Amino acid sequence: MPPPRSRRRHTAARPVRHVHHHPEAREIVFDFLQGYDVLGAFWMTVKLTVLSALGSLVLGTLLAAMRVSPIPLMRGFGTAYVNIVRNIPLTIIILFSSLGLADIFGVTMGTSDFDVQGFRLAVLSLVVYHAAFVCEALRSGINTVPVGQAEAARAIGLGFGQTLRLIVLPQAFRAVVVPLANVLIALTKNTTVAAAIGVAEAATLMKTMMENEAQTVLIAAVFAFGFVVLTLPTGLFLGWLGKRLAVKR
Amino acid sequence: MTDASAAKDAMAGTGDLVVLKNVNKHFGALHVLQDIDLTITRGEVVVVIGPSGSGKSTLCRTINRLETVDSGDISIDGRPLPQEGKALARLRADVGMVFQSFNLFAHKTVLENVMLGQIKVRKTGKQAAEDKARALLDRVGVGTQADKYPAQLSGGQQQRVAIARALAMDPKVMLFDEPTSALDPEMINEVLEVMQQLARDGMTMIVVTHEMGFARSAANRVVFMADGRIVEEAAPDQFFSNPRSDRAKDFLSKILHH
């Protein structure tokens, strides 16, 4: 039988525990979220990510095609693009798109709405920047395709474009699903740089909330968690897909 | 001349199909093709043999310009080999090629491998292309494998698919670049039999090989190369029983007696 003293302490602790298990506890801990459209901000992040991913996939593929093209001018352009763009910080590219392209050269991106223009400039910058990385990932994939595949394609009369499109690139893409997933994850996180030109995505909202609320660490944790929710499944899914699509030789 | 070959000549029309004139090529300091003159007439089966590094594969690959040449002229069916671009692609479609390492398109099924060129180059309709592909696959004995991927087939089966893929383009001439060198011994015959049948059907063939049996039985002419030169050209019987050059005698003594 337990001594009476310990039983008394046990009962004394009970009210404290009761507070922790209060049904309203979650709302009390996270009440700093009230009045902020966190989901809306992440939706903007998703839109930036998806559009930029598609754009950089297209531009990156074109650049990779240029880099393996038999025409020296194309090869030169592809090489120069990659080596210039991937060595400039994304922040500078995005600031240039806003301060340079939009303000000085008057590129309005087909809209007079400031927010829409910012969004489009951000997508443009993200595309331009990540295309260099997509290109390099893809080029490493092209190098995994045995030369004989392209030779066989040319031997049945396919031209350079057809050989690349029908034979080499499909095999190259399958080889680089995982490296491309890395680029996509980096891209997702890099959308936060759009905050520099005021696009209302997750990082912009996080900054606003941190200025207005006291729970800065919790706010950071919520946003960090939000990004992990976006990127972790992407990485896992594409990792699985990469294994599935691998070309057997 | 036998009746069969007489009929073949009449059917194909006379004339030179592949002509190489004074062809030279270097790989850096190595003079890999030296003053090559070679004429292949329609319906002829020419087997190119010789020691490793003698330039036979390179010779074979210059004929559809997978290797460029430094000097000299190559013409096919009376037309000089175009430089690059569409004209070259058109010509390549008329020249079938079979590689040592098969080179089947790894991401496409066997059937798709044989259909691709017909659809994309010849602009054949899908159904017609499939019918022809299946017929060709049956002809080379791999009809039941049509829906598999190349990696699921044995080497011999893959090489027969590769032959079907080349035949699907209705080529004027077929180039074989050591087609059995990458095969297990037991699979060599199944490929050689397909090639024998092709030769009997009157296909013009240039075959780089180490298979002396095939050279004896199927070739109209044996071309012996050494050190980048054509050292000797003769009918197979004459070449194997009575080679003229010392280099050929030496080569044959090494491969035939052991």
TrEMBL record, chain B:
Catalytic activity: a polar amino acid(out) + ATP + H2O = a polar amino acid(in) + ADP + phosphate + H(+)
UniProt keyword terms in alphabetical order: Amino-acid transport, ATP-binding, Cell membrane, Membrane, Nucleotide-binding, Transport
Pfam families registered for this protein in UniProt: ABC_tran
Membrane topology: Peripheral membrane protein
Compartment(s) where it occurs, according to its Swiss-Prot or TrEMBL record: Cell membrane
GO cellular component: plasma membrane
UniProt xrefs under PROSITE patterns: ABC_TRANSPORTER_1, ABC_TRANSPORTER_2
Regions that span the bilayer: none
Main enzyme class: translocase
Domain ABC transporter: 18-252
Annotated GO MF terms: ATP binding; ATP hydrolysis activity; ATPase-coupled polar amino acid-transporter activity
Matching InterPro entries: AAA+_ATPase (IPR003593), ABC_ATPase_HisP-typ (IPR030679), ABC_transporter-like_ATP-bd (IPR003439), ABC_transporter-like_CS (IPR017871), MetN_ABC_transporter-like (IPR050086), P-loop_NTPase (IPR027417)
Enzyme Commission number, as recorded: 7.4.2.1
Family the entry assigns: Belongs to the ABC transporter superfamily.
PANTHER family listed in its UniProt record: AMINO ACID IMPORT ATP-BINDING PROTEIN (PTHR43166), GLUTAMATE_ASPARTATE IMPORT ATP-BINDING PROTEIN GLTL (PTHR43166:SF9)
Name of the molecule in the record: ABC-type polar-amino-acid transporter
Organism encoding this protein: Streptomyces populi
Lineage: Bacteria, Bacillati, Actinomycetota, Actinomycetes, Kitasatosporales
